[in-house]
Amino acid sequence: MSLPDFTDNEYQLANQILLERYNRIVPLQAVEVELLLKPEDKMPTPCPALYWSELGAEFVVAKMGDQRFRSQFFYSPSEIFGTGRDVYDNLGDCVTTLLKLQADHHGTRAAALPEALTKENPAGGADDGNYLPPIVI
Question: Which domain holds residue 90?
Answer without folding.
Answer: 8-34+43-118
